[in-house]
Amino acid sequence: MELSKRAWQKVVKSPDTYMGKGYKLWACIWQFDAATGADGFLGYASYRREDYWALDGENAAFAGDAAQLSDFVEGDIVAMSVVGLGSYSYDTQVGGNTTVPSFQVVKIKRQKGSCE
Q1: What is the pLDDT of residue 76?
Q2: CA distance 46 to 96
Q3: From CA 99, how far away is CA 75, in angstroms rounded?
């Protein structure tokens, strides 16, 4: 399901309310390393492709099959079909904790360009 700006804002605000629902999302992968593991990454996500990901995207966590995600790296822009998993909390590198919406990746495709 394609989202409007307002619908996307509702998912970000209350991700647990939208568990199990499917969406088409875009993301700029900003962390995909030993800390996230081979089967997940963190990205700036949006309901559409953004020009300025760090400003206009929302922090989100993505989980998927390691084999499916093996060709993707930090800096990639991706379009995905996802299913909402609710909220996800993790410790930040500066010692804090943050909670973000999380999604299961069903399909993923690298897009032209880079978000770096």
Answers
A1: 97
A2: 24
A3: 22
CA–CA separation, 76 and 91 (whole Å): 23
Report how far residue 21's alpha carbon sits from residue 49's, in angstroms, rounded to the nearest whole number: 20
Q: Locate 69 and state its tokens.
A: 């995600």
- Looking at residue 34, the DSSP 8-state letter turns out to be T
Res. 1: pLDDT tops 90? no
What is the rounded average pLDDT of the residues 28-53?
Answer: 95
Query: In this structure, what token pair is assigned to residue 49?
Result: 């492709």
Q: How many alpha carbons fall within 13 Å on the CB side of residue 68?
A: 16
Q: Which residue has the higher pLDDT, 81 or 1?
A: 81
The CATH fold of domain 5-114: OB fold (Dihydrolipoamide Acetyltransferase, E2P) (2.40.50)
Domain spans in the chain, listed from the N-terminal domain onward: 5-114
More confident: 92 or 14:
14
Using alpha carbons only, give the angle 86, 41, 78 rounded to the nearest 5 degrees. 95
